[in-house]
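A common beginner's mistake is to predict each chain separately and then try to dock the pieces by hand. The better habit, illustrated here, is to supply every component at once so that their relative placement is modeled jointly.
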Amino acid sequence: MIIFHIDVNSAYLSWQAAYELENGSARDLRTLPSIIGGDQAKRHGIVLAKSLPAKKQGIITGESLMEARLKCPSLLVIPPNYQLFAQCSEAMYELLLEYSPHVQRYSVDECFLDYTASQRLFGDPEETAHTIRNRIKEELGFTVNIGISSNKLLAKMGGELQKPDQVHTLFPAEVAEKMWPLPVGDLFMVGRATRKKLKRLNIQTIGALANSEPAFLRLHFKSYGTLLWQYANGIDDSFVRESNFPAQKGVGNSTTISFDVTDRKEALLVLLSLTEKVAIRMRRKKALGQVVAISIKSFQLERVSHQRRLPHPCQSTRALYEVVESLFDTYDREKDATLDATMDRIRKRYGEKILIRGCFPHSGIKSIQGGVAENDDYPIMTSLL
DNA sequence: TCTGGGGTCCTAGGACCC
DNA sequence: TCTGGGGTCCTAGGACCC
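With all components supplied together, the output reads:
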């Protein structure tokens, strides 16, 4: 098997830069300290993509605009143009299809291409990869990295070796030399949590992970440990899958509101607008949903999620929203129950009057009233009848 | 570290059944 | 009345990717 992994360098930024140049702009964003980022005022303010000059000033993808501006006060911030990005992504995909019918769109800016059968037609993989890289640069105006190997994992890791505008091979025989010295966090599927856990186990490079005992990793990471060991050793037998097969499993939309939502009605309006979008997409895909899930992020960035299986699969906005609403109210009541329980505990310990609802002072009405006995454990006779 | 939005997969624990 | 094990389904949460 010969697999290519094609990855656009700083995709959003490169695409915006190419677009501007094509439309007569005098600047090239890639040569300036610039980023693609959301609107801070709408609380969408994170770095989505950065130029090399911005990277040199220490700017990291995913950090807040505030942090980024602290590092580089003259930073140029451009809002994302998702329509443009979709067009650029499509153009690259079409070009790649000229070299193999087996192209998997892994994300908006990444594709896997199965070159195995194309080799007879186009010849040496490395030469073809350079041709593709050059054609994308000339015809579409942006640069890519291409990794070449005998499986998807290594092709992807190979593409990361050195950027931008590069072709690299990472065949199994090269793994020890090229991949093992890298920090373990560079390995696909090793994120923040896993990296921290591995560090505690004194595993800091991909090589150290590769040479650990699989049983030891399984002990600490369950089935995930086996996957980590295989990836560190360059083992992967997954297929390049074309188009969208198997079909996507879920359809979801989310949004960050520019202010804190505190009111149930307001929250439900947001949920309704999201439900509408999801339902429209589902009907376009001719898909039916079996489970409805909502997720809510608090102002402190804590997340809760609730889901419910439907008695019958559906795609109607109203039917979906009815479940959404009921899930939200369940959550709402749960919060009330937690609050009630806490207040009861405090009152039991310090007396009922220790907590008074804010609306009672100066109202002339006692904050807690009703009943005849102080102690609820002895109900009066009438309540038993 | 603290304001994106779109996904996938795994695991633990509880309910329920036999 | 208590005990037991195995299987399935469901939900919440957390890991990862781009």
